[in-house]
Design a protein that fits this description.
alpha/beta; Serine Threonine Protein Phosphatase 5, Tetratricopeptide repeat; about 50% helix; about 350 residues; five-stranded mixed beta sheet; Rossmann fold; two-stranded antiparallel ribbon
Length: about 350
């Protein structure tokens, strides 16, 4: 009992200090480009099959896009007649939504305890029961065509599976799933991430991390820059200096001011700090941070390319002479050679 009273408080203190030593977990976000950048063109025509879910998805996609571009739903046969008659102008995309469903049966197993009694007494055992559960598997294919030529630009596939007793209820849940995924396909969205920063025993670092924890990435980054250039920073052990450079690389990545001024320089500075941290101490955390940074950089570059393509396509549309307009090249994000099927 004496030992429990003696070391209990010390153990609690050690746990608190250990938690503090791990550093704060902070939140940040960055933009992810649209997987299917329909808004890069001024006009989109949406078509589908005759299944009620296909029609609803097409209508919802039209409603989701119509505040930004010219978009309407059309019957597939009418659309083909327009194309053959040369009535689809350039800078027009055609989106076809096709749904395939498959009913099936899953075998589900449940277990429960039961008491079994016999001549020699009673005992407990686990009983396993199997029963069939109806399933509905659905695949939606979203194909993007160049309007005047029907050339395939991109194809995306969405999948969903539901289990239940009522077929209509499963279809309703699958529809909600597909509508959410469809919006995510065509939207630029914010990707929220959480990052752990690491404490370093160096003047100014703790205050900088506190600022970042409050969401003040710019101020925290400047504090870490000053700390990294200080004379005491040069005397740090390799592991401690790597931790400092890791913090600095993360802060540089999410500094909103430098990102707006010069995107390439912004990401290059963050990469430089993380690469140096890896050279000093090749921990998996630093390599993961560098990989995430490069993914962020690619996403930012893709968004910039999509915006440039949008400006170009809309400028061509404003200058368009219907008798001589050329079809603009597809924007970044489209695969001119889509996967088979």
């Amino acid at each position: 009992m004496w030992r429990a009273r003696r070391f209990g408080p010390l153990l609690g203190l050690a746990l608190v200090l250990g938690a503090c030593a791990r550093g704060p977990v902070v939140s940040a976000s960055y933009e992810v480009p649209a997987t299917v950048p329909l808004r890069s063109f001024p006009r989109v025509l949406v078509t589908s099959g005759h299944d009620a879910l296909e029609i609803t998805m097409a209508q919802e996609l039209v409603g989701h896009l119509q505040s930004d571009i010219q978009v309407r739903r059309m019957d597939r046969d009418q659309l083909e007649r327009m194309r053959l008659g040369g009535q689809i102008p350039s800078a027009t995309l055609v989106v076809m939504i096709e749904l395939r469903t498959e009913e099936g049966i899953d075998v589900q197993t449940t277990s429960r305890q039961e008491t079994v009694c016999g001549p020699n007494g009673c005992y407990r055992r686990t009983r396993y029961d199997n029963f069939d559960v109806p399933t509905l598997k659905a695949t939606t294919t979203v194909t993007v065509y160049e309007g005047p030529t029907a050339r395939v630009l991109q194809r995306a596939t969405l999948e969903a599976k539901e289990r239940g007793r009522e077929y209509d209820a499963m279809r309703a849940r699958i529809l909600e799933h597909f509508l959410t995924d469809l919006r995510r396909l065509v939207d630029t969205r914010a990707e929220r991430v959480q990052v752990r920063l690491l404490p370093v025993d160096l003047p100014g670092v703790s205050q900088a991390l506190q600022l970042i924890e409050l969401g003040k990435w710019r101020e925290g980054r400047l504090g870490l820059e000053r700390a990294a250039r200080s004379a005491p920073a040069e005397a740090l052990e390799r592991g401690d200096r790597a931790r400092l450079l890791y913090d600095l690389g993360v802060a540089r990545r999410f500094d909103p001011v430098s990102a707006e001024r010069d995107s390439d320089a912004h990401f290059e500075a963050a990469e430089e700090a993380l690469r140096e941290a890896i050279e000093l101490d090749p921990r998996p955390r630093y390599a993961e941070a560098l990989a995430h940074l490069r993914e962020h950089r690619r996403a930012t570059a893709e968004i910039a390319r999509q915006r440039e393509a949008t400006e170009r396509n809309f400028a061509l549309e404003r200058q368009r002479d219907p008798s001589s307009a050329e079809v603009p090249p597809p924007p970044p994000g489209y695969d001119v050679s889509p996967p088979p099927g």
